[in-house]
Amino acid sequence: MNIVALSGAIELGLLYGLVALGVYLSFRVLDFPDLTADGSFPLGGAVAATLIVKGVSPVLATMIAVCAGALSGICTASLNVKFKILNLLASILTMIALYSINLRIMGQPNVSLLGESTILTPLQGWLQALPSWLGTPLVMLVIVGLAKLLLDWFFKTEIGLAMRATGANPDMARAQGINTDRMILLGMGLSNGLIALAGALFAQVNGFADVTMGVGTIVFGLAAVIVGETILSKRGIFWATLAALLGSVLYRLVVAIALNTQVFGLQSQDLNLVTAVLVALALILPNYRKLRWRSSR
Amino acid sequence: MKSPTLFRYGAVALLVGTIAVGCNATDSSQPSNLKSVSVTQIVEHPSLNAVRDGLKEELVLAGFDPDKTLNWQWESAQGNPPTATQIAQKFVGESPNVIVAISTPSAQSAAQASKQTPVIFSAVTDPINAKLVTQLEKPGGLITGVRDFAPADKHLDLIAKLVPKAKRVGVIYNAGESNSVSIVNFVKQSAPARKMTVVEATVSNSAEVATAAKSLVGRADVIYVPTDNTIVSALNSVLQVGIKNKLPVFSGDNESVEKGAIASLGFNYKDIGKQTGKMVVRVLKGEKPGEISVESPSQVELVVNPKAAQQMGVKIPDAMLKEAVKVVK
């Protein structure tokens, strides 16, 4: 693997770390299996790209994209808590609706940002001073690191604790006077806001938004969370969010290896198989560890 | 408690080791004196594969044999744009002499990643809208290529010739495919001059194609299927509606005529690949991509299917049968 491919994989892994954080929030904290991600990721890209092409400043465009993502999450959560639609089904409904909405927003299936100014443009001078393989991954590290620390802080606030209680034991949470419906709405909004931020950044860093770019986002997010947990055991929120980021970067490194035809004869055609094996292994290994632990006691 | 920790460190060590092996394997196995061409493709699909095969054939003809005298690499993103960006980054890092990008998202990824490496795109319908180039003639910069914009105006002429009473042209397409949207927009522009109107039926996946085709019965005089991956993969549903309701079905690609559409003036995708190959050879021999104009396919081939025409109540005149490059039996 060459340095450009390696730094590219780390950059993409960090960017998708925002997806992993979002999926961690919905899947692990709220215990809400949320497929909205496959729609909210391209939604973020669609909103940001369309606004940037129309001349809106990239920072404002990105912020609006995050709000759009949050709205989509709130939409899924409302279908679930207000209208009592099964959580998985509610998220599937939002996801398929978003496909059409994304097409409407962009007015075409693919919006190109090649040559447009993006959120990276103001940093251009600073980026050019660094080797090209280092600059963008560093920017991603800062953005994703900040998101992680903010999320860690949030989970320690009163609302954050209430949200964790909602996912852990809704009945107990309600008995403590927590409005669990509101917590699910807020948490799902936050989760999909993060995922839409990832979509908005993806479009700006890679030069295009495409309506198909959300395919498999949720599978990826789950893979990152589960693989991360296998490597870093759960020792509290700080480690759990770090594990999600680590899982995300590792996943992209594995893809980069799979793209390396000379190693193990793997090719890009095998990617879906590699993902499935990776996630299955990550799910099997902890059980295996538990068994070993029990028998060794 | 010891064994789980050991296990975890073992897993990490294994992963790090694999990545390290991955790093070494490519770096040491690249002979440096050969020219290199790296091809990235968004998905495996008969037309796109034909482009790749034609490209390879042309390179061999020009003395660049992938097995002996050329470093040839090919990767498919399996329909996933993030993977396309990773493929582009891998290629750019290896700095081959030319990157060939088949399809729009692959070309955009390569264009964004490349700082020095020439990029030749192929099978991109609208390179200006995709912002790959700002102009078709002498685009400047590092990028040029071959576009596959189907001559939909000629398709309308063909329909007018075979079905003179056709005034309402029903078009079925997936609104999520950029190529289709560009072509349908062009059909809408070309229709008024031929005293035709366009009736649209859009789908988002192949399961919806049958319903969309049925929705055109009574609303349209003919059905036109553009070069759209979703519709072409479910073409039989359209053909059945056409036969049952005597609603003539025309297509934008020649493969669909062989499956049962009445007629088409289509590209031969292998020829597009060969045309791309000629361009790649020019760059390998030292020309700058920015000075090579974006090309359109040099010819379209008329293919007709008399049996399908008869089933849908249309007669193909003898003159046209003689003119056709291929008559499907």
Explained architecture:
By secondary structure, chain A is mainly alpha-helical. In chain A, 76% of the residues lie in helices and 2% in strands. Chain A has helices at 3-29, 37-53, 58-81, 87-106, 124-129, 132-156, 158-168, 170-175, 180-206, 217-231, 237-258, 271-296; strands spanning 110-112, 208-210. Chain A has a two-stranded antiparallel sheet. Chain A is globular. With 329 residues, chain B is α/β, with parallel strands linked by helices. In chain B, 45% of the residues lie in helices and 19% in strands. Chain B has 13 helices and 12 strands. In chain B, strands 2-1-3-4-5 form a 5-stranded parallel sheet, with helices on both faces. Chain B has a 4-stranded parallel sheet with strand order 7-6-8-9, with helices on both faces. In chain B, α7 packs parallel to α9 (235-244). Chain B is elongated and about 60 Å long. In chain B, 51% of the residues are buried. At the A-B interface, α1, α4, α11 and α12 of A face α1, β2, α3 and α4 of B.
Percentage of residues in strands of chain B: 15-25%
Instruction: State the distance separating the first and last CA atoms of chain B.
Output: 74 Å
The percent range for helix content of chain A is over 70%
Nearest-integer average pLDDT of chain B: 89
Low-pLDDT stretches of chain B are: 24-31
Q: Assign the structural class of chain B, choosing from mainly alpha, mainly beta, alpha/beta, alpha+beta, or little secondary structure.
A: alpha/beta
Tell the overall outline of chain B: elongated
> Which sequence of SSEs, written as H and E, runs from N to C of chain B?
HEHEHEHEEHEHEHEHHEHEHEHHE
Strand content of chain A: under 5%
Categorize the overall geometry of chain A.
globular
Counted beta strands of chain A: 2
Based on helices, strands and strand pairing, what is the structural class of chain A?
mainly alpha
β-strand number of chain B: 12
Show the largest interface. Answer: A-B, 58 and 55 residues
- Helix share of residues of chain B? 40-55%
- In spatial order, strands of the major sheet of chain B run 2-1-3-4-5
- Supply Rg of chain A: 19 Å
Signal peptide (chain B): 1-25
InterPro entries (chain B): ABC_transpt-TYRBP-like, Peripla_BP_I
Protein name (chain B): ABC transporter substrate-binding protein
Keywords (chain B): Signal
